[in-house]
Model the fold of this input.
Amino acid sequence: MPPACVATAPAGINQLAISEGGRRIAYGSTAMEVTLLERGRTLWQRSFDSTDDKIRPTQRLRGIAFNANADKLFLAAADEVLALDADTGRTLWSYQPPRSFGFLIISPLTLDCYGDSVLGAFDNGSVALWDDDGRIQALWSDNDAPRLMFLREDGLAVGTDSFCLSTWRPREHRRESRVVLPERAYTMAASRTGDLAVTRSLHAVTLWDTAHGRGLASIPTDVGFPALAMSSNGGAIALSRSGGVRVVDRNTAPMLDVNLDEEALSLRLDESGQTLLVGTASGRLLHIDLPDREQ
Done:
């Protein structure tokens, strides 16, 4: 079945989130605009474009995630982490890290939410954990502070600073493991329910066992923007390729190839690995049903 276009944005879609069960979808564009859909209907749309000329040259949406009930949406936008009411788009709380030396802007690099825990990392090397009401549960600094990070159901966090793949216990401010990557990782994804993670370098997509710090499988990459996604149980992996998207299983066996005739800027698999969302460079939000397969 060809992909279905469920929404369009005025600019490329670079951030995607899908709630458990797929009832709600949120997407953000390179124009700093965020839209929330419920069963295909637009609930709200809001711009996070800063009016501060010091912030605007480097501002980006770097993370978007729902909490467990999908009644809150969390953003890493420009120089803030924000919690929004998912019904209205109203800001519930925000966190802006203190300026370095009183004037240097500190920006969030990554954000994720699992259950009622929200995790973010910043470009000054700090990492923070909040509950979904905005109370800080942990705040620490790390020499390998991740530019991408994911929370797992066991409370462990897995992330990369591009050169190492590490796991942490955020509430204890403690690193659990660290493995040096053979090549720089431009993006990564991780399972929620196990020890699997996947990184994408210039030449290959590599599947990792984070518990033992070893690579399990590797496939060569195609040219194009390095988007990547993994289902919650690690059973499906989606990667962008030139003019399309490829989906493989945990053994890197092909599941699906989809031609798009444009670049995919963002990918998101639902928790079951049966639905793939694709945000394209032209601003299309595509929905793809994946073939049934033992996960």
User: Anything to note?
Assistant: The CA atoms of residues 63 and 76 lie 5 Å apart. The chain has a mean pLDDT of 93.
